[in-house]
User: What shape does this take?
Amino acid sequence: MRTWAERHGMLLIVLLVLIDTIAIFSVATYKLFVDPHIDPVRHSDAVVVIAGGPLRLKKGIELVQRGIAPLLIVSHPHGIWAYKEEAPHLCDNRGKRRSFKVICFHPSPESTQGEARAVRRIAAARHLRSVIVVTSGFHVSRARIEMRRCYHGRLAVIGTPLNAPWKEPFYVALEWPKLIYAETLNRGC
Assistant: This one.
């Protein structure tokens, strides 16, 4: 008479492969999107804020106010200023005087890749040798990949928390297909 393992050997193999796949996927998700590598912040030529939540802009402004960089570069897609409450006149040069310069740009296309292309153009025009990119924590890994393809100076990418942390699982789930697309079909700058 055959043992249970002999009768269900294939099922056991499939089950073990499934468990291993889930474990690998979970660890990769954690390392890429939940707790990605955050670069150390040191003096740079500019701080770049990728379009997104208000905590990104707050962190970018905090860095330039601390003297980490003299220039703040802010992505401003969709033709609508997303930071009306946080910094209503940041891009139109009205309001209080600042100790730092500001450049606002409209990425084309309106994506991380479009932002990376704009950073490349601005960096070349202004001879920037180092930038700090500020994004959300879940976006750090893909932002680093896409920025590195376009910008070849010293690059640091840091993440901020979301202002609505309950949305993070949704954003993390969206990052997988975006990362796969960026690493397979859309590898250029």
Helices lie at 4-7, 9-34, 54-65, 112-126, 140-150, 168-184.
